[in-house]
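no rush on this but wanted to send it before i forget. theres a chain ive been looking at and ive put its sequence and its fold in token form underneath. i want to understand how the tokens follow from the sequence so walk me through it. thanks a lot i owe you, the record is right below:
>
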Amino acid sequence: MRIGPVLAVVVVCGQACPLVDAAETNPATELEAPTVEVIGTTPLPGIGIPIDQVPANVQAVTGATMRNEQASSLPEFMERSLGSVSFTDGQANPFQPDVNFRGFTGSPLLGVPQGISAFMDGVRINEAFGDTINWDLIPQSAISTVTVMPGSNPVFGLNTLGGAVSVNTKSGREYPGGSVEGSWGSWNRQNAQAELGSSKGPWDFFVTGNYLDENGWRDHSPSRLQQLFGKIGYQTSDFDADL
């Protein structure tokens, strides 16, 4: 087979080459949409949407309901009264359980695969190292409402695979007055708690303390719980801040 000669033609642009202009001006940039900034919100009260408009089984309870149940801790109340919640006693302590929600776990044990996010007044309380949750650090007497939201929602941060637990605490403006409670029970359990709230003008405060001591239902399993929670708030018609 014989191949004939090949003719190559080279075009040299003297002043301005249209090919260079096409490379420098990209028409696709003229069709790009402007930058859209997405700002995620934390589960704070007053900025969400009605529960009946959420396509999920959101469960919400009040602190008064928890008090009527006489549960010793938040995980115990959730296991008793909320659907799809159970807990296991991995630490041999009722105040440091592994809470299971729809197959996912929120545990104080480092190394357990975490699948639940927990918030208190909109602040994430999962530990920075291992995303563990110290349930014993949540004072039950300071809880105003608890909301459990199922589903993997990126709004609530990393490892929110099973859902999120949002705890809102009391304020002196919404819970004025004070109370003192004490109880004694089996296994030498002794429990005392007190709370006090008040407001004046735009300022309000709330403080509560809890002390519990017991020998445990088996040998060598005592528990001692000491909690103190304080909150100071400043609220006007268009401003609200709490510390």
In short: The first helix runs from residue 18 to 24. The chain has three helices and 13 strands. The CA atoms of residues 123 and 130 lie 17 Å apart. The radius of gyration is 29 Å.
